[in-house]
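During the reporting period the student researcher (J.K.) took over the structure-prediction task from the postdoctoral fellow and processed the backlog of single-chain submissions. One of the processed entries is reproduced below for the supervisory committee.
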Amino acid sequence: MKLLYTLNQQPPTGLALLLAIQHLLASIGGIVTVPLIVGTTIGLPTVDIVALINASLMVSGIATIVQCLGFGPVGIRLPVVMGSSFAFLGVAIAVGKEGGIASIMGASLVGSLVVIASSFYMDKIRQLFPPVVSGVVVTLIGLTILPVAIKWIGGVAETDAEFASLMPLLLATVSLAIVVVVSVYGRGNLAAAAIFLGLAGGYLLALLLGLVDLHPVADAPWFGQPAPLKYGLSFSWSAIVSISLVYIVVIAEATGDFIALGNNCHTDVSGNDLKRGLLGDGLGSSLAALLTAMPLASFSQNVGIVSLTGVASRFVVAVTGGLLLLSGLLPKLAALAVTIPKPVIGGVGLVMFGMIAYTGIRMLSKTQDNKRNALIVCIGLASGLAVIFEPRLLQHFPSELNTFFHSGITTGTLVTVLLNLVLPQPHTDE
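J.K. obtained the following structure tokens:
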């Protein structure tokens, strides 16, 4: 796929801002939702939940800028958006209910050292990811997060009788249709803004239909500021182990995201590149813990945006980082973005997440067609999807292993890597 702007090209200022906004709109909902759910569930007062959200936005912005631009040995220098990860949601709630927010931050700080330590071995780890393994991992990233977009399209909780009523389906369909039409018939910069236009068109329709709740904007404060170590840090062995296991999951997902991004940006990702990226990831989560924010991970949906729009400029996503930082300092801006109805984001998400799966399939199409690779691909994909389609497969596992393997990306990655190591290479006549 031809790139409109390559990795090191800088689009004109106005266009760069527009392209950065579509990355912002695709990611800000997740960044805000994680601290919102955790804070509400463990009983934080509203003012502290707002502070947790502000800090998460600011740290996400800082980490995104570092990953895109790079500072010395830190940052992969690819268009990576960093943000609060849903992977930590369940374990953070469990730890927070037992030990409070201080226990979450303490365990996150120690757990981030796992990512930092792992980064120094990425030269060796990269060798475990030849194209057949990378293709499976990237395909799994796309397939396992597609259900998220589908749930967003429903508009409300799946148990609600109004789930997937006609109005949410209309919003999702219109948003998706705009993205498709602009991508197919648009040219140059117009096609590059397909995601933004899809979100804007769906949002405008929702406004006209009276489906947008603007109260969060009115209720949000004008200014926010970080509160370093607001709750202090407490350290529990069980909390540290639980959150460290999730960080291992994040390492696998980040490796897949970085390789997929490199593929979409038409650049090879070396072990040293992965080292810089994981180091940025780990240090970002360390900073998050110190500033009382949720731990970070790379955002897969933004990988799909690069593939769809053909804009691989890391400077565009660096601007997104600046907007995230600004949103943390000016909470009303963040609140405005959060008012976008979920069906609108879900309709656009079908393309974003599907594009990630397409990237993986494209990588697999370039591998040798033989029985060994077919087994690796089939079993790797099946094992990763199995724990997504039927989570009860893990119900008799110890809780720590359940936490580790519940991610289809982690399970599929481990199975695929192991198969690639143990299966013999085919004979030349196969």
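The committee noted the following: The chain is about 70% helix and 0% strand.
J.K. will present the remaining backlog at the next meeting.
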